[in-house]
Design goal:
Helix content is 36%, strand content 27%. With 316 residues, the chain is of the alpha+beta class. The protein has two domains: 186 residues, Efflux pump adaptor protein, beta barrel domain (Elongation Factor Tu (Ef-tu), domain 3, Beta Barrel); 112 residues. The strands form two sheets. The chain has a six-stranded antiparallel barrel with strand order 2-9-12-11-10-13. Helix 2 runs antiparallel to helix 4. The longest helix is centred in the middle third of the chain and has 51 residues.
Length: 316
Amino acid sequence: MKHTPILSAVRLLLTATAVGVPSADPPDRVGQASASTSTRPGEDRIAAILTPHRQATLSAEISGRVTAINKELGERFNASEVLLELDDATFRANRRIAEAMLTSAKVNLTRVNELAKSRTRQRHSEAVLAAANANLTATQRLYADSNASLVDLENAKRDAVIAQTNCELVGSTASKELADAQREMEIAAGKLEIAARQLEACSIIVPWAGRVARVLVNEHELVQHGTPVIEVIDDRVLLAKFLLPSSAFKAVRLGQELDLHVTETSDIVQVKISHVAAALDPASVTFEVHAEVDNADGKLRAGMNGTLSLTQVRGP
């Protein structure tokens, strides 16, 4: 579930006794949550809002028809559980084709390797070259003894040159064939990886457990690549986000435990500061703080409001 920046809406809610002037309710939703929520007389209250620990909008990685929606609004899911399925018939066929192409490429590479190792064609071309050179030598002797014509000598020379060229060509061809076979196998392996990944993409999953915030498509709809299909959150741990006055900066520390009064349930839950802003905002003279809230029992919901005691933050 996407959220607009929440802390931009949070305002300090200090009672009139803290500053000597009447406090005014800020216009935003979060600020309205606790202008007068003070559990003890004279205690300053800070507005906070609960947000998910993690959230994501999942989109289709391939184009296809929605065949099943396995989790609906608000339902919990486990890590890597299939939330939504797309028609995978075409992608299964593509994977089978890619597997067959890879098998063929492997067979061809094995054949070329065996030929290269046996050097059958190389040995044949070398034998032809040896015979041509022997014939040239014999013809030269016959020509020297006037027992062979000049034409015979030129033919013998030509045959030797052709045999030499063919021998060199066979050697280079064998190397090229081996390189081509290896390249074809790598291409086929890559195509299989792509086909397998596209098939996996037909099942929409998320690697962590959580809850469905919103389903954005319907069954039987055709979705395109990149279309958002479902929004999910991990609310097993929530983050209470709030702003503190810069005067409280020295008192705040990571791991500090505070009591959060949840407006919607009237419960008081313990929170632990997990993040403190790296820089203060000079305009509002505040800084942002996040505190983790254990929500393993699922009683709290993202978007709930609460208040904290500024006095507790500052300590004794």
